[in-house]
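cron nightly-structures :: item 1 of 1
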Amino acid sequence: MPLALEEKQQVISEFKTNDKDTGSPEVQVAMLTARIKQVAGHLESNKHDHHSRRGLLAMVSRRNRLLRYLQRRDRESYLKLIKSLGLRK
């Protein structure tokens, strides 16, 4: 269940730090958040899909690691990012 190309481009354009940015921690966290929301919606209607649930937990863990990295490296960017994504931290 990958993100649609239009949705992916929208997320990248919203969170990029420069013109060629596609791999910064901010963009990666935003992309993971979009995927997490998509998979969470899938799991609401497919409660017994344990394989997708495992993938969801892996994505959440990866997002948490990226957020911890960003918090150590650039506190202002971290605070701006979690506010814009609506994450609790």
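cron nightly-structures :: done
The longest helix spans residues 50-73.
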